[in-house]
Amino acid sequence: MSEKLIYLVRHAQPDAPAGEQLCLGQSLDLPLSAHGLSQARALGRFFAGRGVEAVYTSPLLRARQTAACIAGDAAAPCVLSDLIELYGGEWDGLSFDLIRARYPEYFGPTPRRSCPPGGETDEQGLARARAALDHVAQRTGRCAVMVAHAGLNRLLLCALLGRPLCEKKRIPQGYAAVNLLQYAHGAWRVLQVDGGPARPAEGVSRPAGGGKTRQ
């Protein structure tokens, strides 16, 4: 496979209740807030002139609206089901304050459990993320954008950086975050984490998975 540049983007800010952190997951399909639309338009300006050939997006509205702003007048974004956010099971749609109160065993310095009840495991989510990346890379001549979610992005970045999935929360992913992945010489590299129009990126340059991720 020839050299590729894939921009992995987190959707812009959704229109969630002010001051409340929610586990949006898959079931709470919110549109972008006014500020989120401004962030998405800034992404559109950021990607203009960067040679993006195609934009792929999660089926959830907050991602589709972000992707539409990035695509602009070009071809409509392609919806890719594997880019959907992790399924939170019983947590989907709840506030994190309520989740911590109901499920204390998942929190603290040594949590006893990790996968939400009835939810998707990190390994299942990572398998989807890898499938999406492979799908996009095989269909991209040189450069494409994938718009997804914090949970899914963190898992893929952990894997490509060679970090254990339990460190996913250490990967910064603000709203409208831009991460840059490069495929060259038979391996993936993460060139940029959590960048974008409004903030400097955390620069990294490591072979994906210690150079073991090949296709």
Automatic annotation (TrEMBL):
Family matches, as Pfam families: His_Phos_1
MF-aspect GO terms: phosphatase activity
InterPro entries, sorted: His_Pase_superF_clade-1, His_PPase_superfam, PGM_Phosphatase
Disordered: annotated segments: 196-215
GO cellular component, one term: cytoplasm
Protein name in the entry: Histidine phosphatase family protein
